[in-house]
Amino acid sequence: MVRINLSIDEKELQELDNIREKENLSRSKLIREAIQLYKRKFNKIDLENRRIEKIKNAIRIQDSLRKYSRDWDGVSEIRKWREAR
Q1: Are 12 and 19 in contact (CB under 8 A)?
Q2: Which residues lie closer than 8 Å to 42 by C-beta, 6 or more apart?
């Protein structure tokens, strides 16, 4: 494990110490757990942002295909194929 120095406001430190006492944790353990919690939150937000970008990209592709196909009616084509069977 690596040791680091951390600058923190006295009020924040007091609040952390209050939590630490209630949770019966060391400062180091509390900060490690806070970092893990932050990483999970960050990864969740990052995953959601990537999902949104994929959706936006799919919409862009659909829009470009719609412009390309103009008056083509896919529903009518599917009905023709069904009737042919």
Answers
A1: no
A2: none
